[in-house]
């Protein structure tokens, strides 16, 4: 089975936030759940960089505020969903 970019995005959130994949929805936002605090945010950045073999700019790290925003940011790095 082929792994999609959506699967990889979900995997990064699951790994970094230690949450169930069913919770990874576009409306999930930074600090909206206890698991997504500032420490988990940096873990998420590392997981996204690893999953997609990219290096996020500082502005993108700061702007990463939701699953939907993650999709938008990754689009700047030629990741299609």
From TrEMBL:
Keywords: Plasmid
SUPFAM superfamilies per UniProt: ACP-like (SSF47336)
Keyword rRNA processing annotated: no
Domain Carrier, chain residue ranges per copy: 7-68
Pfam families in the record: PP-binding (PF00550)
Protein name (Swiss-Prot/TrEMBL): Acyl carrier protein
Source organism of the structure: Ponticoccus alexandrii
Phylogenetic placement of the source organism: Bacteria, Pseudomonadati, Pseudomonadota, Alphaproteobacteria, Rhodobacterales
């Amino acid at each position: 089975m082929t792994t999609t970019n959506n699967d990889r995005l979900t995997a990064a959130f699951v790994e970094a936030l230690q949450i169930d994949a069913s919770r990874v929805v576009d409306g999930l936002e930074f600090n909206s759940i206890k698991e997504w605090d500032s420490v988990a945010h940096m873990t998420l950045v590392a997981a996204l960089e690893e999953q997609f073999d990219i290096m996020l700019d500082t502005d993108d790290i700061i702007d990463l505020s939701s699953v939907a925003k993650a999709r938008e940011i990754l689009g700047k790095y030629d990741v299609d969903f």
